[in-house]
Task: structure prediction
Amino acid sequence: MLGLADKVALVTGGSSGIGEACVQRLVSEGCRVMICGRDEAKCRAVAESAGAGERVATVTGDVRRVADCTRMVEETVARFGRLDILVGSAGIWLEKPTLEMTEADWDDCLDTCLKGAFFVSQAALAHMVPQSSGVIVHIASDSGHHGEPEAAAYAAAKAGLINVVRTLAHDHGPDGIRVVAVSPGIIATPMLDKAIADSPDPDAYASWQADGYPLGRIGQPQEVAAVVAFLASDEAAFVSGVSWLVDGGYCA
Result:
């Protein structure tokens, strides 16, 4: 993709799933990448598999903690000298009937998917604004575009994230910064594997994952990462404030 070579990217949630695919794709495009996750061993494994030597580094942190959001960005700038791209991929899936939802469930989902995304963006913007450039790409969800059965907290968090993206695009477009969201449908990730395993009937739960998708299948992490790379590149220089659906036509 045009303009990605030698750019510095921070990927939260970069130790698995969509985040890991984004790391791999950005490295292949010539970026220098800081991988962030809560599990140091997993982050290091992704760094090793990327095979980019000194162009890849890791930092552990939890986006639910504002201090960690700031530290992750500061360590990226200390390691690579600047920050050009933030990919916010840290998130959790919460599927629970409304009458069974606890305050702790709600807080964990919103803190991870929405609060963390906002505050890591804030930390990134503190460096992007003075350099008058930067791109922020958050992984939202098609659940932010429609009601998600038995997943009110998750849908609320992703809908909120989409509107945070819109607001930041308005606020910081004049500073030369683009802010966008990517909204995947169901993607074959460890998070999906866990949801299937935790369901009362795993075989049945797995069997209907592709239902309603015009393309007749669920997506792959690499397909989301390709859109992330495009949006982070100069080829999307006039794209900001949108949520780009990568959902196999589900929301069509």
